[in-house]
Design brief:
The chain has helices spanning 9-31, 36-56, 62-67, 81-88, 92-101, 103-113, 120-140, 154-175, 178-188, and strands spanning 75-76, 152-153. The chain is mainly alpha-helical and 191 residues long. Helix 4 (81-88) crosses helix 5, helix 5 packs across helix 8 (154-175) and helix 6 (103-113) packs across helix 7 (120-140). The longest helix has 23 residues, at 9-31. The mean pLDDT is 88.
Length: 191
C-alpha cells in the first residue's frame, strides 16, 4: 500500500470484505436478524461508508490551499468563496458534485434504517448533523502528524446541506409511494 488514502482496488475490496464480514457476523449471531435483503442492504451501506470515508479524507484541493494564509487556522467562514474558486478550476465541478450528491445515499440509508418512519425535518437534521460532525472531525484531525490537512469550510456545509435537502425531498416523495413502503418493509424485515 503506497498510502492509506490511495488504496489499490485489491486493498479496497479487502477492507470492504472485512467490514462487510463483521457486519454480517454481527447481524447473524448477535442480533439474529440477518435475511438476504438485510445482507444486501448491509453490503451497500458498508461500501457507501467506505467510499465516503476515502473521499472525505482526501487532501485539500488547490482551490482550498489558495485561500489559506500561512500560520492561520484552516477555517473558511465566508460563504461561496471556495465554490466560486472551484467553479473556475478544471476539476472543481467534480468536487462540487461530490459535495452535493454524496449525502443523498446517506439519507436513504437513514430512512431505511428508520423503516420510513422519520419525518422530513428529522431526516434533514440527521443528515446535516452528520455532515457537520464530519467537518469538525476532519478539522480536529489536522493535529495528527502526517495526516492530510483539511479546511473547515462553510461552503462544504452549504453544498452538503443542499445535497441533504435533495435527498430528503427525494426520499420523502418516494416513501409516499406504496411500492417504496413495501420495499422498505421487505428490506428491513427480520423474518
Amino acid at each position: 500500500m503506497n498510502h492509506i488514502l490511495n488504496p489499490t482496488i485489491f486493498e479496497f475490496f479487502t477492507v470492504y470484505i472485512i467490514l462487510f464480514g463483521v457486519c454480517v457476523l454481527w447481524e447473524k449471531w448477535v442480533r439474529r436478524t440477518l435475511t438476504y435483503n438485510r445482507g444486501v442492504f448491509l453490503s451497500l451501506f458498508t461500501g457507501y461508508m467506505l467510499l465516503t470515508l476515502l473521499l472525505t479524507v482526501q487532501p485539500m484541493s488547490p482551490a482550498e490551499w489558495s485561500i489559506v494564509v500561512p500560520g492561520s487556522p484552516l477555517v473558511n467562514l465566508r460563504p461561496f468563496r471556495i465554490i466560486t474558486l472551484m467553479l473556475q478550476s478544471v476539476q472543481g465541478h467534480w468536487l462540487l458534485m461530490w459535495s452535493i450528491f454524496l449525502p443523498i445515499p446517506f439519507i436513504f440509508f437513514v430512512g431505511f434504517l428508520r423503516r420510513g418512519k422519520i419525518g422530513f425535518s428529522n431526516l434533514f437534521v440527521t443528515g446535516f448533523t452528520a455532515s457537520l460532525i464530519i467537518e469538525v472531525m476532519l478539522y480536529v484531525m489536522n493535529h495528527i502528524p502526517h495526516f492530510p490537512k483539511h479546511l473547515f469550510d462553510l461552503d462544504v456545509l452549504i453544498l452538503n446541506g443542499f445535497g441533504v435537502f435533495l435527498g430528503c425531498v427525494l426520499f420523502s416523495w418516494m416513501e409516499s409511494k406504496q411500492w417504496m413502503k413495501e420495499y422498505i418493509s421487505e428490506t428491513m424485515s427480520t423474518k
